[in-house]
Every structure is written in structure tokens, then in C-alpha cells.
Amino acid sequence: xxxxxxxxxxxxxxxxxxxxxxxxxxxxxxxxxxxxxxxxxxxxxxxxxxxxxxxxxxxxxxxxxxxxxxxxxxxxxxxxxxxxxxxxxxxxxxxxxxxxxxxxxxxxxxxxxxxxxxxxxxxxxxxxxxxxxxxxxxxxxxxxxxxxxxxxxxxxxxxxxxxxxxxxx
Length: 169
Ligand code: FEO
Fold this sequence. Notes:
This protein has helices at residues 4-33, 37-63, 83-111, 114-144, 150-157. It is an all-alpha fold and 169 residues long.
């Protein structure tokens, strides 16, 4: 069993992961409307990952004999100023999520809940990747928007096809 407090925060994180998926799906839709299908694809994959993160929390709560409590998922932002603005939002959001995961780990340590701490370590490692991936994508899009056809090239790069950008910049 996990503590009542831990059950509460695990459910909160389940909600936060589903919200992340919702946010990235909103970003995907934003790019679809701009006909930037590659960027839309990148966000769609990101959303799918978040839903799987949510399911990891769902499964863990069930596995520990605790209660899954689903609550309202906040409406995500729907509009951004530019593709760069979107990816700045992604990086900022991932940093918030990292903070939430760290707080969960702190609680698990405080409670001597080794099993939950062990479960959370996957997310600690995942957040390192998430921040790196978001930061790298942001840098790429910043560079891409400085070139006349940079965004077009990046859209292809972020899509499902294998694409080698004509310029490394
Ligand atoms: Fe599930 Fe992007 O954190």
C-alpha cells in the first residue's frame, strides 16, 4: 500500500501527464492548421508518449492497491504566437513536470516508500531526455526560422519521413 498522501499525489501526477498529452495534442492541432504536418507529427508523438506516461501512473496506483481517482483535465492553451513560442512552451512545461517528479521523489524518500521511489526513477531519467529533446527542438526551430525555407525543411525533418536538412544551420 501507499500512504493516503502518496495516493493523492500519484493521482495528481496521472492527471498532469494526461494534461501534458492534451497540451501537446493542442500544439499538434495548431501545426495542422498551419499545414506544418511534420511539426504536427512531432507533437502527436509527444502527446502519445504523455498518454503512456499517464498509464504508467494509472497502472502503478492499481498495482499498489490504491484508488485511481480521475479528475477534470484542464483545458490547454490553444493558440501560440509562433512555432518558436510553441517550443518555448514545451521546454517550460517539461521543466515544470521535472519539478513535479522531483517533489514526488522527495515525498517517497520522506515516507521511506522505496517501491514508489524506485517506480519514479524511470521518470527521473525520462525527464532528462524530455528536457534535452525539447531544448534541442527549440534550438532547431529558432535556427530554422532564421532561414527563408528553414521551417519547411524542419517540418520535413520532424515528420515521419527520413530527411537530411540541406543546411546544418
Ligand atoms: Fe511525461 Fe513530458 O513528461
